[in-house]
Design brief:
Layout: E1 4-8, E2 13-18, H1 29-42, E3 49-54, E4 59-61, H2 75-93, E5 99-103, E6 106-108, H3 110-117, E7 120-124, E8 128-130, H4 144-151, H5 154-163, E9 167-168, H6 169-175, E10 180-182, H7 186-193, H8 195-198, H9 202-218, H10 221-237, H11 239-255
Helix pairs in contact: 1-2, 2-10, 3-4, 4-5, 4-10
Bound molecules: ligand LP2KCY5N.
Length: 256
């Protein structure tokens, strides 16, 4: 099974689907490469909106693939992976097209970081999400913490990051993290949510995104995301983090 799918949907929507439902759509290096490729494609003249979702109805994305990244032990090793993904999420943040995360199921850890880098987030009824990194003795490491702190009111963003809790769709809507809860087909929900943008000229969409992107430049967002990756890498090397990942992996083995 391909780990990701890139598809052109109706009305100029380019859709990136993380296709690892048995791993709750966790991100490995192949998915990272796919996302890089899709973001490049989304810059094309024929694309109006870039959307990201996960395969199946259980998870949008469970963050970094804890089994794939389990071999990364040192700060330097972790920084390579974290910094690469922070670079990808920055490209997503400043893509000169409107972007939307369709949260078809749970968004956990790095899954929330990917969603944060999009302009809009819609969530399926019953979905849950949370920045759980703190429970693994690390912080956000893909730049999503820096993004969240700018997109949500500071007190709400800090509470989400510090508490590292999983929240319901209704709570996430109250926080301003998701902008609509949908019930039926995720692509129809996306087309409906973005319909106002989809009937505009691409040049208009690009002009507004370019306007917004000035703000990220002024806020030195690229540098802040890189520093976030570097700080997370320091915590990554610590025994406390490896112990927490071991606990997750062992729980998994016991269930087999
Ligand atoms: C590394 C980057 C870092 C960042 O910078 O942000 C992070 O992303 S840290 C956060 C990493 N993610 C997590 O801690 C989430 C771990 N997963 C879960 O908490 C749960 O799986 C879930 C996402 C809430 C879904 O729960 P549920 O529907 O009950 O599914 P299971 O737990 O039974 O999982 C099914 C299957 O998938 C495997 N899985 C899930 N998440 C990951 C993951 N992130 N990496 C690797 N594998 C994952 C899980 O082990 C199960 O496997 P099997 O037992 O073999 O079926």
């Amino acid at each position: 099974m391909d780990p990701y799918i890139i598809s052109k949907e109706k009305n100029g929507v380019l859709l990136f689907t993380i296709n690892r439902p048995d791993r709750r759509n966790a991100i490995n290096y192949e998915v990272m490469s796919g996302l890089e490729k899709a973001i490049d494609m989304a810059a094309g003249n024929d694309i109006k909106v870039f959307a990201i979702t996960g395969a199946g109805d259980q998870a949008f994305c469970s963050g970094g693939d804890l089994s794939a990244f389990h071999s990364l032990k040192t700060e330097t090793q972790a920084y390579g992976m974290l910094s690469r993904m922070a670079g990808i999420l920055y490209k997503l943040l400043v893509l000169p097209k409107p972007t939307i995360a369709i949260l078809n199921g749970s968004a956990v850890g790095g899954g929330c970081e990917i969603a944060s880098a999009c302009d809009f987030r819609i969530g399926r009824e019953g979905m849950k999400a949370g920045f759980v990194q703190g429970n693994l003795a690390i912080t956000t490491g893909w730049g999503g913490g820096s993004i969240l702190l700018e997109k949500l009111p500071q007190n709400i963003a800090m509470k989400m990051l510090l508490d590292a809790k999983i929240h319901t769709a209704e709570e996430l809507r109250d926080f301003g993290f998701i902008h609509q809860i949908y019930k039926d087909d995720p692509i129809d929900a996306c087309l409906s949510f973005m319909s106002g943008s989809l009937d505009k000229e691409t040049t208009v969409l690009e002009a507004y995104k370019t306007m917004l992107n000035k703000k990220w430049k002024l806020l030195s967002m690229r540098e802040r995301m890189e520093e976030e990756a570097a700080r997370c890498a320091v915590l990554w090397e610590d025994d406390a983090h490896h112990k927490k990942v071991d606990e997750f992996m062992n729980k998994k083995n016991k269930n087999n």
